[in-house]
Structures are given as C-alpha cells and as structure tokens.
Amino acid sequence: MALDATFYAFVSLILFLALIAYFKVPAMIAGALDSRADKISNELAEAKRLREEAQGLVAEYQRKRKDAEAEAASIVAAAQREAEMLTAEAKQKTEEYVARRTALSEQKIKQAESDAINAVRAAAVDLAISAAEKVLVAKADSGAQEALFKQAIGEVKSRLN
Predict the structure, then answer these.
(1) Half-sphere exposure of 131 (CA within 13 A, CB side)
(2) Residue 78: how many other CB atoms lie within 10 Å
(3) Rounded CA gap, 109 and 103, in Å?
(4) Which residues contact 137 (CB under 8 A, 6 or more apart)?
(5) What is the pLDDT confidence band of residue 2, given thresholds at 50, 70 and 90?
(6) What does the mean pLDDT of the chain come to?
(7) How far apart are CA 77 and CA 125, in angstroms?
(8) Which residues 6+ apart lie within 8 Å of 142 measured at CB?
(9) 56 has a pLDDT exceeding 90
(10) Dist. CA 54–CA 36, nearest whole Å
(11) Which residues cross the membrane (predicted)?
(12) 108 sits in which H/E element
C-alpha cells in the first residue's frame, strides 16, 4: 500500500470528523438551528398576535367611526328640528307682533277719528256761539243784554252749587 496524498486527505477528513464529533459541534449546530427555529417561530406567533390585535383595533375603530357618524347624524337631525321649531316660533311671534301692531294702529285711527269729530263739534259749537252772540247783539238792546247776562250768571251759580 502506498501512502499517497489521497490517503492523508482521507485520514485528515476522518480526524476532522472525529474532532467535530468529540467537541459536539453537530449538537451545537443543531442547538443553534433549533434556537433559531424557536426564535423564528416566536416571531411568527408574535406577528400573528399583533396582526389579530391590529384587526381588532381596525374593527373597533370602524365601529367607533360608525357610532360617531350615527351620533353626528342625530346631532344634525336635532339641530334641524330645533331650527324648524325656532323658525315656527319666530313666525308665530312675528304674526302676533303684526296683529298687535295692527290692533294698536286701528285703535289709534279710531282715537284720531274721535278726536277729529270732537274737534269739529267744538269748532261748530264755537261758531254757533259766536253766531248767536252776533245775532243777540244785533237784536237785543242793552237792557235785554243785562237781563240775559244776569240770567246766565244765575244758571251758572245754580249748577255750581
């Protein structure tokens, strides 16, 4: 048997594999691979948990958004009802105000008519008195005037007492 380079390479390979087995390198490699696989498995589980949590948060925010939209719709509806109520109330108050002002204006017109009629009557009475005075002055003499004056004073005294 000849000892050539192939034999020495084979013996070196056997010694290398024996050293690797002696120092438990395959177990260390398997342990490292197992720990790496466990780490990857844990990361996948964590990613799955985070994904489920994110989906839960998305569902919760969508529900909150729907609730907020419903609340906003109810607020808008309430505001519309209140605006309609305020409009109706303002319309009613305006109509009442117009009715009161119309009644007040009619009352003032009636009062003005009454004042005008009284003023015309007073002017007519004054005119009649002055006409009667002129007629009496023209027809009566001074003795008759004194008698009428005394009679008028007597009537005034009797009405005042």
Answers:
(1) 6
(2) 10
(3) 10
(4) 145
(5) low
(6) 89
(7) 71
(8) none
(9) yes
(10) 26
(11) 6-23
(12) helix 25-139
